[in-house]
Amino acid sequence: MQSQEAKYMAVVKWVMEQIQSGVFKTGDKLPSENELSREFELSRQTVRHAIDVLEQKNMLTRIRGSGTYLGVGIREVRKERYQNIAVISTYVDSYIFPPVLKGIEKTLSKAGYTMQVAFTGNRIEKEGEILDKLLEKGFIDGLIVEPAKSALPNPNLDSYRRLAKRQLPVLFFNSSYPQLQFPCVALHDELVARKAVEYLIRAGHRRIGGIFKCDDGQGHLRYLGFIKAMKQAGLGIDRRGIVWIDTESQNDLEAWSDYLFNRLKDCTALVCYNDEVAYLLSGICMKRGILIPEDLSLVSIDNSELASLGEVSITSFPHPMEALGKKAAENMIRMIENPYFDGNYLFDSEAVERNSIRVRV
User: Fold this and answer.
1) In this structure, are strands 242-245 and 84-89 parallel, antiparallel, or unpaired?
2) CATH superfamily of 189-318
3) Would you call 300 helix, strand, or coil by DSSP?
4) What is the Cα Rg of the chain in Å?
5) Per UniProt, which keywords does this protein have (predicted)?
6) Where are the domains of the chain?
7) Which residues make beta-bridge pairs with 154?
8) Contacts (Cβ under 8 Å, ≥6 apart) of 252
9) Angle 127-129-131 from CA coordinates, rounded to 5°
10) CA atoms of 80 and 212, how far apart (whole Å)
11) pLDDT digits (tens, 9 = 90+) for 150-207
12) String of b and e for 28-50 (b: at least 16 CB within 10 Å)?
């Protein structure tokens, strides 16, 4: 007589064989408990135990009132449609966001969707208010959002989880909260920062510093790329030459100028978090009699109009801007149509060369 373990293991092994052979794929619905009971001539209790075991192995997801599906975090396709997408952005007037929002709007409109937009000012309390309103009376098919201060602990994560439980797709852009497993469309920040350091190394620089943002996830990824490139080149990392700023100090960089240049005085080149930082820094350098690129070379990220506005135009790696918005909207539409679609996408970038780099012999 078969043991209880052997009985339920027959179902477990059969499901795993179907997955390995490609008969079952992620998102496929498992036969009902009644169907498995008849097929294996087992009690529903034994079949239920087998499903429990497979669920503990992260192979199945139960959806109440719908059934059991292959994969983790699977959700049932929503039937109602409002043809409306909510978009939350940190800023409305920064050089990055108007093109991003333009790309989102054009793509959604072409597909028959309307767009409702809200702005957080990169403040988590404002983000929370917006999410509460969406949860209360959203009438939306999905949410595209740039997280507020994505590198810091955030009290709004449960609100995002509640949206997901309502089977609403959520897609981040530019950055994401690491605690949430939602897809993200962004610049490949780590890779681009590595390329920026490598660009300076090819120009003969060895004492390279960096200014990074501490409260946004992009800053941490760009710092990671910076460190990896320096180590790959066998260069020592002077911790004094790495400066962290936040959103507020970036807006008043000149007030920190004594501190900045005390930290950066031994650097011949600098990777700037973005064009705004590079532009402000170059203006402070000019007031202090520090010549760019003769005394200090700068390379930046975004390739915005700010890269060309200063006394010396700045070499910069382009942010995809409108293309990023277009991709985010395209991926959101696909996530609505297919809940199992992977909406992640990272953009590469290459330097646009200008006059801010001195080649050292």
Assistant:
1) unpaired
2) Response regulator (3.40.50.2300)
3) strand
4) 26
5) DNA-binding, Transcription, Transcription regulation
6) 4-70, 84-187+322-347, 189-318
7) none
8) none
9) 70
10) 44
11) 999 999 999 999 998 888 999 999 999 999 989 999 999 999 999 999 999 999 999 9
12) eebeebeebbeebebeeebbbbb
CATH class for the region spanning 84-187+322-347: alpha beta
Question: How many angstroms separate the CA atoms of 184 and 143, rounded?
Answer: 12
CB 155 within 8 A of CB 99: no
Side-chain-side CA neighbours of residue 285 (13 Å)? 23
Longest dimension (CA), the chain: 91
Phi–psi pair at 282, nearest 5 degrees: -65, -35
Contact by Cβ (8 Å): 351, 321: no
Cα–Cα distance, 43 to 11 (Å, whole number): 12
Instruction: Tell me the C-alpha distance between 273 and 341, whole Å.
Output: 32
**CA–CA gap between residue 125 and residue 155 (Å, rounded):** 9
The CATH classification number of 4-70 equals 1.10.10.10
51: which residues sit within 8 A by CB, 6+ positions away? 11, 30, 33, 60, 62, 68
- How many whole angstroms separate alpha carbon 20 and alpha carbon 251? 55
Residue with tokens 């890269």: 307
What are 225-276's pLDDT values in tens digits?
999 999 999 998 989 999 999 988 988 898 989 999 999 999 999 999 999 9
* Residue pair 218/189 in contact by the 8 Å Cβ criterion: yes
- The mean-pLDDT minimum among 23-37, 119-133, 229-243 falls in 23-37
Cα separation, 273 vs 229, in Å, equals 16
The whole model's pTM is what? 0.79
Quick check: do 84-187+322-347 and 189-318 share a fold? yes
Token pair in block for residue 356: 């801010």
> What is the rounded CA–CA span in Å between residue 10 and residue 19?
14
